[in-house]
Design a protein that fits this description.
With 403 residues, this protein is an alpha/beta fold. It folds into two domains: 50-166 and 303-383, Rossmann fold, CATH 3.40.50; 169-296, 3-Layer(aba) Sandwich (Rossmann fold). Helix content is 47%, strand content 18%. It has 13 helices and 15 strands. The strands form three sheets. A seven-stranded mixed β-sheet has the order 7-6-8-9-10-14-15, with helices on both faces. The protein has a five-stranded parallel β-sheet with strand order 2-1-3-4-5, sandwiched between helices. A three-stranded antiparallel β-sheet has the order 11-12-13, with helices on one face. Strand 11 (366-368) and strand 12 (371-375) form a beta hairpin. Helix 3 (102-114) runs parallel beside helix 4 (127-140). The radius of gyration is 24 Å and the shape is elongated. The termini are far apart.
Length: 403
């Protein structure tokens, strides 16, 4: 074998490979850069009804999330249309069911854009599903507002994606601050759903905030949503001597876990995030739900006129008290209408995606049901949060935490 020739060939080959990798990296960076700025798609004709889309879990394990959000959006549309619409044009809603599944999410978001020709999209509740739908909206140049996806990565996809809820870093801080300063607790355990970006992210944010506030994480355990054989995790938490358990899961799992925890002899309070927000939670957990807390976006007990008018109208339409998901759906729709009015010239001209997204992202001091808030430079809503405590099976106002 000619070693000199062999080495020369190897060097030449290595140069070619490194060159190809460099070009590939440049191309990838260019693609990522392009992704950050959405196109300027026009879905609108400038006349007739303004079509907006909603994608959510209308069925599946977290069905109340999508259903509540949809009810809030529909109430907002009904009120806007009764007041004359958006610059004289009525608003029409097209709702697509994700069934809580990633594959279904990509299908329905694409359908809303290509088949239904919506000018903007509202959705999803679950962060993991907004992380599927957001890149599609970004690529197609159609603005998307998530009512309630709190994972920070949701809006990082680009300028077409924003939200009207706070993010997990704040929600984790809110829960930690309440545990430390209101409940005066120093030792916490964390039990999170490792299959959900929402739960894993919120668990991480709580741990960081709780330790920075002087607390100690006594135990950390994980489970997989839908698989609720958690006896070993609960025994580990019980043995750690925690004074509070942070459980940032979805209501469909949380109710069963808390009930099993009480049966296992764990008597300390549980603390969670807005994924608890469903009337089904108390039905699943029974009496075990009482004495536990969760952070949320609003309380129907607040005296603010925006809250009381919304609660009154919602109850008149649906014969039930609106949860936080309904309030966020309502706020997302109302903010969208406001942005259309600020960005659209009217006079038969079409609503254009880029201009609408810019108006959404420049929203300041919007007075919503879930508070007065502005959209920041990262397209997140800067706002306060509330802590609710379950008493006699009903969530009641316990505290408000400012940003």
């Amino acid at each position: 074998m000619n070693l000199r020739g062999w080495h020369a060939g190897k060097v030449a080959g290595l140069v070619l490979v490194l060159g190809a990798l460099a070009l590939s990296s440049i191309a990838a960076c260019d693609q990522m850069g392009a992704k950050k700025s959405g196109g300027s798609r026009v879905q609108d004709t400038g006349k007739g009804a303004i079509k907006i889309g909603h994608y959510g879990s209308m069925s599946g394990a977290q069905a109340t999330f999508g259903q509540s959000t949809d009810k809030g959006i529909r109430l907002a549309i009904e009120e806007k249309n009764a007041a004359g619409g958006v610059k004289g044009r009525k608003v029409e809603l097209v709702t697509q069911d994700t069934a809580g599944k990633s594959q279904e999410t990509s299908i329905v978001v694409t359908r809303l854009i290509n088949d239904d020709k919506v000018v903007a999209i509202l959705g999803e509740v679950a962060s993991s599903l907004s992380l599927v739908g957001g890149p599609i909206a970004q690529k197609e140049g159609v603005p998307m507002i998530s009512p309630s996806s709190t994972n920070p990565d949701v809006t990082a996809v680009g300028d077409m994606v924003s939200r009207v809820c706070f993010i997990d870093s704040f929600q984790g801080f809110v829960a930690a601050k309440f545990a430390r300063e209101n409940l005066k607790l120093t030792k916490a355990a964390v039990l999170y759903d490792q299959s959900q970006a929402y739960s894993a992210g919120l668990a991480s944010d709580f741990k960081k905030a709780f330790t920075e506030l002087g607390g100690t994480i006594a135990a950390e355990q994980a489970y997989t949503g839908g698989n609720l054989e958690v006896s070993s995790q609960l025994q580990s938490i019980k043995g750690a001597g925690a004074e509070v358990v942070f459980l940032p899961g979805y209501y469909s799992d949380v109710g069963t876990i808390i009930r099993k925890a009480r049966e296992a002899g764990i008597t300390v309070p549980f603390l969670g995030g807005d994924g608890w927000d469903s009337a089904e939670l108390a039905k699943i957990a029974g009496d075990a739900i009482n004495g536990n807390y969760y952070s949320n976006h609003y309380s129907h007990e607040e005296a603010r006129p925006e809250v009381q008018a919304f609660v009154k109208n919602y109850q008149a339409k649906y014969s039930e008290t609106p949860d936080g998901l309904a309030a966020l759906g309502y706020d997302a729709a109302m903010l969208l209408f406001d942005a259309i009015e600020r960005s659209w010239p009217g006079d038969g001209k079409p609503i254009e995606g880029k201009a609408l997204a810019a108006a959404i992202n420049s929203t300041k001091d919007f007075k919503g049901v879930t508070g007065t808030f502005s959209i920041d430079e990262n397209r997140n809503a800067k706002k306060s949060a509330v802590i609710l405590e379950y008493k006699n099976g009903v969530p009641t106002m316990a505290a408000r935490i400012e940003p």
